[in-house]
Amino acid sequence: MSDILCQWLNSELKISKHVEPSSLAKDFSSGYLIGELLHKYQLQDDFDRFSKSRTANSKLNNFSRMEPTLQLLGVPFDLNVAQAIMMEQRGVVTRLLYQLYIVLQKKKKTGLTGVALETLQPAALAKLHSIESEIYNERLKAAVRREADRQLQKVSQRYEVKGREIQEKVSLQQYEEMQKAQKMQEDLRLQSIEKHRLARKRQDEIMARIQAAVVQIPKPPPNRTLKAIELRKHQKKKREAQEVYNEIMQFEKLTEKLSPSAAATSSLSVVQTSFLSNGLSSKLRSPGPEEKAQANNQYIQKIRHRLDEDAAAREQWEKRRRRVLVEQLSAHEAQEEAYREEQLVNRLTRQCQQERRLAVQLMQVRHEKETIRQNRIFREKQYKEQRLREFQEVLDKEALLAKQAEIDHMEEIRKEIERHDKLAAERAEARYRKHHGFCLEVLSQVVDLATRAGEYRELTGNLIPAKLMREWKELFFHGKPLYEQAAVKPQPSEPTAEQIIEMEKMDILDDQDYEEYQHMSGEWAALGSSVVKEPPTNNNILGHVVHRLQDIVNPPQPATPPPHFPASTLKACVLGKLFSGKSTCLSRIATAHHILILSPNILIQEAVQAFQNNEVTEAQESLCSMDKETDRVPHDEAEKPEETSNSSDSDVHSSEQQALLSKKDSKLSVRAQLGAMVEKTLKRGKSVPDELLINIVVEAIRQVPAESGWILDGFPVDISQAKLLEKALSGTDPDKTASKKKKSKTDVIATDPNTPKEPPPPLPVLDLALLFDMSDDMALDRAARQTYEDMSQPAAAAVECLGVKDQTIQRRDRSLQKNQIQHRITAFHDTWPKLEKWFDTQQHILVKVNAEDDEDTLFKKVESVLFETIMNKTGKAEEPMTKEIPVSDAPAPAPESETTPPATAVSTERLPAVKPSRSKSGSKSPKGSNSTRNSAKDRKGRKTDKPGGKEVTRKGSKGSGRSGSDRGRSARVSECSTPEALSRPTPTEPCLPKPGSSEWVYVDEPLPKEITEYLAPYWEDVNATYVTNVKVVMRNLRSERDLIIHQLYDIREEFKQYLKRPDHKQEFVSHWQQDYNSMLDDMREDLETKAELHQRLDDLRERLWDICDNRKEEAMEERSRTMSNGWLEDHTTILINHFSTLIQAEVDRFQDTLRLLRDYYEGMEGSIQEVSLEFARIPLVDIQDDEQQGSPEPAKRIPLIPRRPLSSDLSAGKIKSASTDFEAKEKKLIMDIWQTASTAISNMMSAELQRREAQEEVERLQSAEGKWHKASQASAGINPGKEKKKSSKKKGASPVPEPSPAPTAEENPEELRKKAVKDKIRQEYFGALEHEELAVKVRLELIKSKASAVVRDLLQKAEDAYKEMEEWLGARFLAEMTSIDHLSGVARHHIESATKIYNELVLSASGFFIDGDITLLASPPPPPCPPPIETPLPSSLTILQLETFCKQLSKIAPTGFLSSKVFSDILQELTSLSLGNDLLPDSWMHLSVDQIQELVSLLTLDSELIDWHKFLLLAAYPWPYPTRTELLHTLGRFRALDPGSSGFITKEQFEQTELWFPDQHEHLEPEDPTEPVPFDRLANLKKFLFMLFAEHHAPVARLDYVNMLLYFASHPDPVQGFHRALSIATGTHISPKKPSSQLLQSVPRITEEMALETEEPQTGKEEGVSITALLTVVCHGGTKTENHHRFCSHRKTKKEYSEDFCRIYRELGFGELDKIPYRILSQHSFMLDLIDSSLQYKFTDIHKVLQRLQSQDQAQYLTST
Question: For 388-422, b where at least 16 C-beta lie within 10 A, e where not — what string?
Fold first, then answer.
């Protein structure tokens, strides 16, 4: 049975855990699997609340939730069964599972759900089940103990076991001590007996000697009379009686000691009887009458006492009997009640069974009726078959054949399904292999990352730096291995695959380092002490120059205008597997909504048919547009040949398109021409190319009428068709757009500030992509059904293709689709993921519908989706069309001719520098379009000034969105920049903008072609060289970092091995031990021999010490050699050279930039001068020594700086100072290199400035000379004789013309314009150079700080390594010395004990061992004591509970106030069964709702709000109640720590202040280390007080000490509490005249303290009370302003209280700022009413309230029982 059940659970139901027959009871003991079993049959809706845990709470939860379901199923399940399952009793789970199996199988056959079962259940039975469930839950909760109780029991049991063990130990010790005492007493007794025996023996010997010495005198014979004989007998009997009496008395005394209640008379009677029996009673003295009376009285008292005890025992027995009877009576009543309930259940069950029986009978009757009807129908059918049998004989053979065909068809379907499953399994296996390979690769990379981290930690012993972790993460994200696969130095000519990977890794890390260097992030981030904080900004002037050169050399291609299509209400495509119902549903859509359906297969057939029918075009414009389309498609496809499915097909297609273009004069339509191309392609046996198919679809879309919709049926099939369709319909190539987005940023030094922003991504051309989703099995089923229908209906019928054309076409070849369905489904699975990503993730137009529904449901779903899409598109189209009008009209020529001339005219008027010819060309192309549309002939006809004119017109359209007004402003600025204009004051003109700013208009004068062709590639070379040099330096720095890490590790490891080198100490030890053991045993005990052995041991120790000292000196020398081997200087020099190379790259970039800018601006000026400027060389540090440089070498191109290595003979004391000097020298070296580079930059700038000034001076002199020459010629025409004389006289001096105040009409405006342009060029040129100078200096400063940091880090690492080596050396030396001391101690012990050393003494390395593996260890320290544990009080909260409660309440009510309703709800939740087990004491957990309400009412005396601070303070009681004097003293101590009178103190100040109770107690450490330290409640209470009253929202937690003390001012008498609070607010002692309440008697713990308070005398002058103090007291605990709700209507606001107090002060004749004596203020009626009605300072002892409530509960319980 168990095996059957396990098979049912594992195979059929597939539960979450595999069960076995042996572990069935254990697996189902928690109830989780039973709930899962019911959930599998949809009967357990709350299964998500089941728990897998095996704790008692989880079992209680699971069995409570499953009981109603089992009762609903009719499975017998009660508390006993639940307990048996929990206790894992064998057979119980098997029986329950068998019952569930039977019931669930019946339910499965009937098909009823859990809801149906509940509905069919009678109401009475359901109510009865609910009652039973409640009883079951209560009993289960009582039977199953909670987990907390179990844990508590375990803890208590553990401590009980410990207590018993301790008690047993104590008892054993006491018993042993008692045994020792008894043994000692027995020894003493034996000694005393032996002493007496010896004394008696000596006495007998003495007596014998005396008797022997005495002379024997004969005596008369003794008296032999009878009287004498009787007397002797009587004396003998009397003596025996006396001995017996003494023994009895001794026995009675011993009995009285053991049992004091023993009777004395019994002993007396025994004595008397014994004497009477012997006949000697007459000889004893009879007791007197008084003694008899006393004995009788004692006997009577003992009898009465015994009677009283018997009566008390009978009373107790009677009570116990009554209690047992009461319990039996209650148990009997409960049994009767259960019996009545059982009878009721039986009656109701009997009634339900009758109803079920009636229902079954009715069902049987109905079934019989149905059977009779079916039989009648069957009989009639048989009669009909019998009548028609003769007609069916002819068709039997055909029926058999059809049946055989059907069987064959089913076999084919089975084979197809098997084939499909096989293909699906292969596809799943391929996906698994791919996923497995990817996961394996990722896992190996994760393992490599972990091992690399471990290796680095092993090499350095430090944390992994962020730079190294970023490098590893970058390689990890790129999927590159972290370990080196192959060596790439030197770089191979034909690298292997591993070397290629290594080079890719280097490129990735180089790019990362370059990005960090450029953006000053990561490792190159600015240091805290560095002057440089941010990277230099972009040089806008340089960016403009570079991009202008690039645009001139490589002009941008014009943008292709988007194609034009008629407006459509819907543009969609429907995709899905074969036989998913796309065509059928779309045909109905087309019929119902007149939407055009475009099927690619039908479109191809129509195109071929049009070619065969010689379809003629209707308009020539369509042919022209088709020519443009065909011209564009091959051009675009030639750029991306990988998009086509077959390269040969694309070549054939493009050649045929070219052939088609050569036949433009033909009159065939576009569709016919495309059909001809399709026919030629199909005749070759090839498939239709995607490009040709897209052209056919696009041509069909062009023919769609405007304002109508179209849907593509089953197109596109793959991602390439989707992208080609997007490109054909939108005019933009998605692949190019995506490549622009994914393309990484190029390594450029400067960017163009006027670069236009990237346009937003184009909207998708389709409005909707609809997927008919269905399973593969459904597709195969439909294909088989369709094939079977075709076989059963051989007559072919023409099918009308609705939505495309009203024409008749042939039926599709079903057999071909049937044969291709497997490949079509496989192809769909292969192509759909990319299509889904395209339509869903990128275009967000994908909608999926379930195609497995019936035809009508699918049609309604598709109809609703299409309608929603059309409505969304219509809603978007109804928005204002102002933004769409320019876009739609842009290609039209008329608007362009109307809008452009005014802007051009304005720009022409405001630009005097433009020649008329250029202005004409500029007017034709305002946006630069004319220059790009010119033909090749126009380009050839233009001269060198053409690029300048073209650039002027282009920049007029760019300029960051500036219009022609910017040009006008720039023209005015250029005019004002002439010397003549600068000389005139123009206050109304704006100031000249800064070069490179957003307002600056750049100079775009024409450039010679040779300059542009030279400067553009020159800048590319400069950029590439700079980036390459920087990356090479970064690569070298990385390799040097790894080399240094390994070098330091090798140094440490080598030194470790050197310290472990062998020595000869063991030989001396072994020799000494042999000599010692060879001595005779007698000689070892001789003192002189011992002295000799000690001397030999001392000699051995001295010798071993000498060996240790020598080894230490050798290790010190080895360390010195390691430090002075020069590797640190070499690597430091190499690092400095790398940074010097980086500085050289920056300087070279600056020089190249300077040359570029100088040639560019001089080319615009037309005067290029050759300047011999040698490149500045930054010196490097020479690594070779002077000895290696002895041979003369030719002069080097790069200057070298000789280094100064450390001296090789460094002592230990000079190492630190030498390393410090070396660090200073290296820093000075870096500073010198940086200073050299900065000086070179400054020299280049000053030289360029001087050269420019000299050039301007020459131009100025030439201009002055030309003006003077013209003036002389003019004067020579008037007076030639005089002018010649003057000229001959002034020949030697240079003519200086007088400046005219304003340009006259004779001055040439062209010269003025050129002069203004030159001035602007000079400003722009020097602005660019200044920016470059600032940028390069920032970079140099960054490199200098980084170099210093790297060198400092290297020196610090080396110093740490050397220090670690020194520590190892010292530790090794100390260990060796310690081992020698241990050896000496062991040897001396054997010498003193004069014993041989049998075990071999081994002195190995730094340890001392005995017999090879025994070592000496120190005694372990004692374990620390466990932390203190607070013992919970009956009703008080522990400190941990108070802190937890405070945190929760602070989250719920940060203001400190809660409504009584919320507070009572919180207490009810905390005292419930499932919550708050550890938050409240046990006495709180039994509070009822009424008791909680009563407790809350005591806390809300004058408001409906509860101050939870006060509640927690009362819950923490008992604490030392402070007197008024103690509160004032505490206030004084707080104020002493607050000199600024802010009213707040910090936590440190609070902990330092002593309160009215001591917060530190000296606790003795327990003798048992396992016992915890006693818990100091007062010290922890002080910490809790700060946590309770402090303001934690402040930046630093602070405490309002006055507020805290006001809480402690509360008193059982609220009047006393008010005066205590007023004393705290004023800082003086204020007390009432007499007590006004008798509540003091109810709190005995505070009565004595109050008495002490009242007796305190008032000394000194009485101080007054201010209004501020009154407000502090009255407004404490909240006012109406703080709580705006209806519960605080009787409270006043702070402002109202202030007004009342001011009025009182005025009535008493005082000012508002004065202080009134309290004896005067307290006599005012308002104050008397306020004090009497104030309840906020009333102290409520909630613990007494809890005790009273508990006593009431106990009394009620006793009364009820």
Answer: eeeeeeeeeeeeeeeeeeeeeeeeebeebeeebee
| Joined tokens for residue 1109 | 């000292």
Amino acid at 109: K
Residue 400 reports pLDDT greater than 60: yes
**Helix, strand, coil tally for the chain in percent (to 5):** 65, 5, 30
pLDDT mean over 865-890: 59
Quick one: CA torsion of 918, 920, 921, 927, rounded to 10 degrees? 110
Long-range residue pairs from 1100-1105, CB within 8 A, at least 24 positions apart, any chain: 1100/1068, 1100/1069, 1100/1072, 1101/1380, 1101/1383, 1101/1384, 1103/1068, 1104/1065, 1104/1068, 1104/1069, 1104/1380, 1104/1383, 1104/1403, 1105/1377, 1105/1380
> Which amino acid, residue 567?
A
Asked whether the beta carbons of 128 and 345 are under 8 A apart, the reply is: yes
Query: Strand, helix or coil at 570?
Result: strand
* pLDDT of the residue at 898: 33
User: Is there a contact between 1169 and 1226 (Cβ–Cβ < 8 Å)?
Assistant: no
Alpha carbon distance 1653, 1525 (integer Å): 8
* Alpha-carbon distances of 1507 from 358, 1452, 1605, rounded to whole Å: 67, 13, 15
CA dist., res. 1445 & res. 766, Å (int): 62
Distance CA 1104, CA 1406 (A): 12
pLDDT band at 1349 (very low <50, low <70, confident <90, very high): confident
Alpha-carbon dihedral sign for residues 114, 116, 118, 120: negative
d(CA 1256, CA 1248): 12
User: What type of residue is 1372?
Assistant: R
Mean pLDDT across the stretch 1036-1056?
88
Least confident of 219-223, 548-552, 815-819, 914-918: 914-918
The string of pLDDT tens digits covering residues 318-327 is 888 888 888 8
The span from the CA of 1719 to the CA of 1374, in Å, is 81
Q: Are 417 and 777 in contact (CB under 8 A)?
A: yes
- 1201: nearest Cα among 1221, 1179, 1225, 1170: 1179
Q: Tokens 């003109």 belong to which residue?
A: 989
Task: Give the other-Cβ count within 10 Å of 541's Cβ.
Answer: 27
Locus of tokens 């910017």: 966
883 token code pair: 């933004």
Does the pLDDT value for residue 625 go beyond 50? no
Asked if 1554 and 1489 count as a contact pair (C-beta separation under 8 A), the reply is no
d(Cα 635, Cα 441) in Å, to the nearest integer? 41
Mean pLDDT of 1173-1190: 64
First to last CA, the chain: 50
- Of the candidates 1605, 1646, 1663, 1656, the one whose C-alpha atom is nearest the C-alpha of residue 1743 is 1646
Nearest-10 Cα torsion for 744, 747, 753, 759: -10
The pLDDT of residue 1283 is 41
The pLDDT tens digits for 529-540 are: 666 667 788 888
Q: Average of pLDDT values for 517-521?
A: 84
Give one DSSP letter per residue of 1268-1334, joined into a string: HHHHHHHHHHH-HHHHHHHHHHTSSSPP-PPPPSS--TTS-HHHHHHHHHHHHHHHHHHHHHHHHHH
Q: What is the DSSP secondary structure assignment for residue 1176, as one 8-state letter? A: P
**Of 562, 560, 559, 574, nearest in space to 729 by CA:** 562
607 within 8 A of 688, measured Cβ to Cβ: no
Range list of β-strands (E), 1091-1212: 1180-1182, 1200-1202
| Coil, strand or helix at 1556 | coil
Task: State whether residue 101 is helix, strand or coil.
Answer: helix
Q: How many whole angstroms separate alpha carbon 22 and alpha carbon 27? A: 10
| One-letter amino acid for residue 560 of the chain | T
pLDDT value for 573: 93
